[in-house]
Design a protein that fits this description.
With 1022 residues, the protein is α/β, with parallel strands linked by helices. It folds into six domains: 7-135 and 345-446, P-loop containing nucleotide triphosphate hydrolases (Rossmann fold); 144-217 and 320-341, no CATH class; 221-318, no CATH class; 454-563 and 726-817, 3-Layer(aba) Sandwich (Rossmann fold); 566-715, PCRA, domain 4, CATH 1.10.486.10; 873-1021, Lambda Exonuclease, Chain A. Helices cover 49% and strands 13% of the residues. It has 37 helices and 23 strands.
């Protein structure tokens, strides 16, 4: 069955599920579908704005946009393979397809905002913004991906209000006592309990951001106290029975320890301590008199076990309740801070939209967005979370009701983001049944592997379809994600590929895997592979770092993906220090950091003729304690200050963020003096652009974002495909990638407890603590633990599947095993894939075809104008106040004072000032009553007055004019100034306005008037 059906046979509405496997070309199929829809003449509503492709990462979104454009370009140049594929599913023939593809490239580039290939978070943020007013938010809000800094601030405010004797103080005291009580009195006393509580609140917020509701906080206190009293009474009874029995105590029993813990009130420490061994040894057969005592002790001991089991279930359900209540109490303060600062957490968007979209407002949303999405294409559908699917569902349902389509692509075997609440069962459910009854439902499968050779596929097949399927421990997990039954055929060819599995005994003192990796590297190089053909994968980042150190020993070039975060690079750190100083000049540490950095040092020696930086170092030592440091520097090196810092210092607060950073790059010619860090500097500038494009233009906000512990993806440098270096990364980072050769390094893994296990029942959402010990004590918790364990195995098996399917031609699996390690070694078929000399073709893949070119950066500063002399803060405020008043006056006659007073009152109220500025009203009144300006404020037949109107010049520049009076015989532009006069600059500005208005009113005389409010003078320009 073909993957894509011809557009002529399509029926709408339709739902298509495309089941994929690693290397089966799902990205190719998704891109082909997108291009097919654009090129079709029979698919309804197939304009750019009507098609939305959703991905789950920025890299995937960028990659798909590039793929779509590449497809269209190849079709234009009549690539035989692409033409054959697309002509099989669209009508019109090759000539029409080639012509239309060329046209579409131009349309996409000219209407790029309509080219909707977006992350799901980006799309839902757009929907949220379109509905912000309905949801009670300002449309100008800022979305925060990392809530931690704002939570810190809100928690500080919360603590300030927690005065002694208040409800908040009582809540904090109770929460601390509860948290310490649940810790069972174990470990060190937390001398800073605030940090402990704050960390828990942040974890709760992170967990709730992925849920569609708020958890309940059950009050288990009375029940726990009742159970504690019963446990202590039972233990005391056992103790009395033991003492009176005369039987020998059992040294293997935990009775003495449990009794001591209970008497100390540490009942949490009783859970999982072992209740099977009675406190006394069983008497022999001849000791008939003692049997009664033993049976009584045994019965009492069993009662202790039952009560501890009941207590364990109650303890587990109450474990998170204190912090949940604290988070709930903090929420009001946090919400107040978010609204005052105009910020929204990304988790708020998902939670809030769920209820809003369920209220049948989808048509309203599309109306506000100015578009209707008719066709949804979703990539990596197995990574969808329940809350994301709940929000997407009504939008998709609305599009299907109007004759649209849904096309989802995914591979449940690659669902490795369970820790982010991704739920692969959503895709499994969509495969088996159609939740949109009115739509045609089709399920197709990609069964040909376009990446891996047969031996590589055979290894993955034996691990999962044979070993995991047959092992009772893994069978259920393999069945759930489809790992026990999948179809993959390698492309025909005479290269069988190569795969080997080798299990080594772990030795941390002299790691045998180090020698093995170095041997493999040497062999691959001798057989013709490039370094860029090879990747090293490992589950944990620490393992990756260790492996790269072994490459470094042999001088093998490598790129570690953990080091690609520009925030960790020295050059980016120096630029951030410079920006930190510009944002806060008294920040001596930031200023000194930049002065001592490589960029400034090279600037001194390369452009200012310094032999070395020793004079600067001596200055810094002499100036210790002198604050602010920059003023001492300005006195010591006035010419250097003027050449390097003065322009930036004056520009901060005036220039937009991106322009300011660009000026800083230009001022120090960073691409010249730090050419070895070109990628770092370019990525930092790109991040600034994206930050500003998201609606944030604050230097301080950018510095806070750069300092936050957020996902490194948006800060990571893109690695050139042609770079001849070994790639080293975690398995999660490798998802979606393929390499000619993969060396997979595996260490033993063990399961741990599960934090914040979520339950759902008639009472709503619950958060429960689940561990192996708790599960053993409570049947309900046992079921939860087994379910969480199965989910964990699914995630681990899927991660192993991803790792085993990255190789194209050669795969080397190196297992490093301790004596008691089980997973993943109990699945690896070492006997079936031993090391061998038969490694297929001894030639690596050729390079990507990319060639390098010399780079050139023109460091030409853009002169920034600040309107003459620099105004003080109060002067700026007065100027803004005068303009706000005048912007509210269209006409005024004899009632001038009354009109101005009303305007000043409204202006003051909107600016949240205590009252109208009487001095400003008086100065404006005197000016307007003069013989020059008065006539321009009176009504005349045919007159039109434009106040604070924006105009564009021929180059697209935007200008806002204070007042434009359009009469039948002439046009007059009036500009109001406060403060001192700057004739040359003011006249240049007004003549620019006159040129714009002359173009809009050809043949009509245009004149200009400059009114200096504070000086009481008026100048005409004609």
């Amino acid at each position: 069955m073909p993957v894509l059906e011809p557009d002529s046979t399509m029926q709408f509405p339709s739902v298509t599920v495309l089941k994929a496997s690693a290397g089966s070309g799902k990205t190719y199929a998704l891109t082909e579908r997108y291009v097919q829809f654009l090129l079709s003449t029979s698919i309804p509503r197939n304009d750019l704005r009507n098609i939305l492709a959703i991905t789950f990462s920025h890299n995937a979104s960028r990659g798909m946009r590039e793929s779509v454009l590449e497809w269209l370009k190849r079709l234009h140049f009549r690539d035989p393979g692409r033409l054959a594929d697309i002509c099989a599913v669209t009508a019109g023939g090759e000539d029409r397809v080639a012509r239309r593809a060329s046209t579409l490239v131009g349309e996409i580039l000219s209407r790029y905002s309509d080219f909707q290939v977006r992350t799901i978070d980006s799309f839902m943020s757009t929907v949220f913004r379109a509905s912000a007013i309905d949801l009670g938010f300002s449309p100008e809000f800022e979305i925060l991906m990392d809530p931690a800094p704002l939570i810190d601030y809100a928690f500080t405010l919360f603590l300030r209000e927690a005065r002694e004797g208040s409800e908040r103080a009582a809540l904090l005291d109770g929460t601390v006592r509860a948290v310490l009580g649940f810790a069972g009195g174990e470990g060190r006393f937390p001398w800073d309990p605030v940090s402990l509580l704050l960390a828990e609140v942040k974890r709760i917020e992170w967990r709730l951001s992925m849920l569609d509701g708020s958890p309940a906080a059950p009050d288990e206190g009375p029940r726990m106290q009742e159970l504690e009293a019963g446990i202590l009474a039972c233990l005391e009874r056992v103790d009395a029975l033991v003492r009176s029995s005369g039987l020998e105590e059992n040294g293997r029993s935990t009775f003495s320890d449990l009794l001591a813990r209970a008497r100390a009130g540490r009942f949490g420490g009783l859970i999982g301590r072992g209740m099977k061994t009675p406190p006394v040894k069983k008497p022999g057969r001849k000791e008939t008199a003692a049997h009664g005592s033993y049976e009584a002790i045994e019965a009492a001991w069993a009662e202790v076990g039952a009560r501890v089991g009941a207590y364990a279930g109650c303890w587990a359900r109450a474990f998170y309740a204190p912090v949940v209540r604290l988070h709930e109490s903090l929420s009001a303060t946090l919400e107040r801070v978010k609204r005052s600062q105009g910020k929204v957490f990304i988790g708020d968007i998902n939670r809030t939209l769920g209820t809003y979209l369920a209220a049948e407002v989808v048509p309203d949303i599309y109306f506000r967005l100015g578009e209707r999405v008719s066709h949804f294409l979703v990539d990596e559908f197995q990574d969808t979370s329940p809350v994301q699917w709940r929000n997407l569902f009504p939008l998709i349902e609305n599009s299907l009701a109007a004759g649209g389509s849904l096309f989802v692509v995914g591979d449940t075997k690659q669902a490795i983001y369970g820790f982010r609440q991704a739920d692969y069962t959503i895709m499994r459910s969509l495969e088996s049944e159609n939740p949109f009854p009115s739509s045609r439902h089709a399920v197709r499968e990609l069964s040909v592997n376009r990446r891996s050779r047969p031996r590589v596929l055979a290894l993955a097949s034996e691990v999962f379809k044979a070993n995991a399927r047959a092992a009772p421990r893994y069978a259920e997990a393999a069945r759930r994600s489809g790992l026990d039954e999948w179809t993959q055929q390698a492309l025909a060819g005479d290269d069988p590929g190569y795969a080997e599995v080798e299990i080594l005994a772990r030795d941390d003192e002299d790691p045998p895997e180090r020698r093995r990796i170095q041997q493999i590297m040497e062999d691959l190089r001798l057989r013709g592979y490039r370094w860029g053909d090879i990747a090293i994968l490992a589950p944990r980042n620490d393992d990756v770092v260790r492996a790269t150190s072994w490459l470094n020993e042999k001088a093998i070039p490598f790129v570690s993906f953990s080091s690609l975060d520009v925030r960790r690079r020295r050059a980016a750190g120096e630029m951030r220090a410079l920006l930190g100083f510009l944002d806060s000049p008294p920040d001596d540490l930031s200023f000194a950091t930049f002065l001592l950095g490589d960029i400034f040092s090279r600037t001194l020696t390369g452009r200012h003729g310094w032999a070395d930086a020793a004079p600067l170092h001596r200055f810094l030592f002499r100036s210790r304690g002198e604050r602010p440091l920059y003023k001492a520097f300005q006195r010591e090196f006035p010419e250097l200050w003027k050449a390097c810092f003065a322009g930036l210092f004056r520009s901060t607060g005036y220039l937009p963020l991106y322009d300011l950073v660009s000026e800083a790059y230009t001022a120090f010619r960073v691409f010249d003096v730090a050419s070895d860090e070109e990628a770092t500097l370019a990525k930092l500038l790109e991040t600034v652009k994206e930050f500003e494009g998201a609606g944030s233009n604050s230097l301080r906000a950018f510095l806070e974002a750069a300092g936050a512990e957020s996902d490194a993806g948006e800060w990571a440098i893109a690695v050139p495909r042609a770079a001849d270096s070994v790639r080293a990364m975690t398995i999660h980072k490798s998802k979606g990638l393929g390499f000619p050769v993969v060396i997979l390094l595996l260490y033993g893994e063990t399961a741990h407890g599960f934090a914040y296990t979520v339950t759902r029942d008639s009472n709503g959402i619950g958060l429960i603590k689940v561990t192996r010990d708790l599960a053993a004590a409570d049947p309900e918790l046992q079921a939860l633990y087994e379910e969480e364990s199965t989910r964990d195995r699914v995630n681990r098996l899927n991660a192993l599947y991803v790792a085993l399917t990255r190789a194209k031609r050669e795969l080397y699996v190196i297992g490093v095993k301790r004596k008691n390690d089980a997973y993943p070694f109990d699945l690896l078929p070492a006997s079936s894939f031993p090391p061998s000399e038969e490694k297929g073709k001894a030639a690596g893949e050729q390079g990507s075809g990319e060639t390098s070119a010399p780079l050139s950066h023109e460091a030409l500063p853009v002169p920034a104008s600040f309107g003459g002399r620099r105004l003080s803060r109060e002067e700026r405020r007065r100027g803004e106040r005068v303009h706000r008043i005048l912007s509210r006056v269209e006409y005024a006659g004899d009632d001038l004072e009354e009109v101005l007073t009303r305007a000043a009152s409204r202006a003051a109220a909107e600016a949240r000032e205590p009252g109208p500025d009487a001095d400003a009203v008086a100065a404006i009144s005197r000016m307007i009553r003069g013989e020059v300006l008065g006539g321009y404020f009176r009504e005349h037949a045919g007159r039109q007055v434009l106040v604070e109107q924006e105009f564009c010049d021929g180059d697209g520049g935007l200008f806002r004019m204070d007042r434009v009076v359009v009469d039948q015989d002439r046009v007059t532009v009036i500009d109001f100034k406060t403060g001192a006069e700057d004739p040359e600059e003011n006249e240049r500005q007004l003549r620019g306005y006159m040129r714009i208005l002359s173009g809009l009113h050809p043949g009509t005389p245009v004149e200009a008037v400059i009114s200096y409010i504070d000086l009481g003078t008026v100048r005409r320009i004609s």
